[in-house]
Amino acid sequence: MTRLTLSDAQWAKIAPYCAGKETDVGRTAVNNRLFIEAVLWIVRTGSPWRDLPPEFGNWNSVYKRYRRWVKSDRFSKLFNALNDSDLEYAMIDGTIVKVHRHGQGAKGGLGHQAIGKSRGGMTTKIMAMVDALGNLVDFTLLKEQQHDMAGVKPLIKDKEFGALLADRAFDTDWLLLDLEERGSKAVIPPKRSRLKQRDFDKEMYKWRHLIENFFCKLKDFKKIAMRAEKTDESFAANIYLAATIIHLR
């Protein structure tokens, strides 16, 4: 069977936040559950929309509906509605994904998208924050050649957490000062180039593997592991949906 199904428990949590419910004003959507499963199938397998199995309906109709959801920011709203993060402590890091040729050629050129050229070809960097349970809290997209620190400020803005775990690439004075002013604990190893080495909680730092585990789960979705979306908004929608499913497992 080609269909990737949601469990009844997963659907019970997702259903209230889907557009076009019978209780909503306006047009009632046709089978929201089948639509979500169709998009999930595309994101999980990395297949082109034209290869969508007929049991999901006409591929072009499903695609147009998907684009409407992307433009109305529906996938991020779904993610945020179900996001009950435990920010006793948070972790940040970045991961690089290659961009498939299907993900190139967006209107306006690559300069308007988080796609950069590196030795390995066209790539995108996903900068993410996860909570104490390893679930996604927030993310931002960068060009691969941008340093991870470029994505830190939007990730920590307006967020409260007891401690921040990150590797030594994030050992910068402004971030350490920011965390001190917030009253948050910095669990970040010092760079070897620092003249004065500072202490950090080595036991707590061991939990940083949770963000690496999250990236591994995220890259099980092939359309994310090999970016095949031309625009950042569509690629971000895929990440929001995948993170929602990971969180509901």
Automatic annotation (TrEMBL):
Please give the organism: Psychrobacter pocilloporae
Q: Which residues cross the membrane?
A: none
The name this protein carries in UniProt is: DDE transposase
Top-rank taxon, per record? Bacteria
Annotated Transposase IS4-like domain ranges read 91-243
| Residues covered by the Insertion element IS402-like domain | 6-79
Stored InterPro entries: IS402-like_dom, Transposase_11, Transposase_6_like
Stored Pfam families: DDE_Tnp_1, DUF4096
